């Protein structure tokens, strides 16, 4: 399994609409792409009202390294451009790929 993490800073005034778009459109589109298994949307509660943005994290699980390569070469720009068109200047994003993920569960 491979983990692909997208860390976002979304402007306060856009945050509700942006999260709604993630929940109802964007994440489902990503999960429909080859190799994507699941996604976790992590929303931080609270935060200082003085801050200009609020953090959001999406943790995607992909089946293997080949799936990440396919996503990056064939789909990533198209998916990113949709967000940029809809929310231009309203967020910033950092992305990380972790090639080995070991899962543990409680007994």
Automatic annotation (TrEMBL):
InterPro entries: Dimeric_a/b-barrel (IPR011008), DUF4286 (IPR025563). It comes from the Bacteria. This is DUF4286 domain-containing protein. It comes from Bdellovibrio bacteriovorus str. Tiberius.
């Amino acid at each position: 399994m491979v983990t692909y993490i997208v860390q976002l800073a979304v402007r306060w005034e856009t945050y509700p609409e942006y999260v709604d778009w993630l929940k109802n459109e964007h994440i489902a589109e990503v999960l429909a792409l080859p190799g994507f298994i699941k996604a976790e949307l992590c929303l931080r509660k609270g935060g200082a009202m003085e801050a200009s943005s609020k953090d959001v994290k999406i943790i995607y699980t992909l089946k293997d390294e080949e799936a990440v390569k396919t996503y990056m070469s064939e789909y990533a720009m198209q998916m990113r451009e949709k967000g940029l068109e809809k929310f231009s200047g309203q967020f910033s994003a950092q992305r990380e790929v972790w090639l080995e993920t070991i899962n543990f569960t409680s007994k």
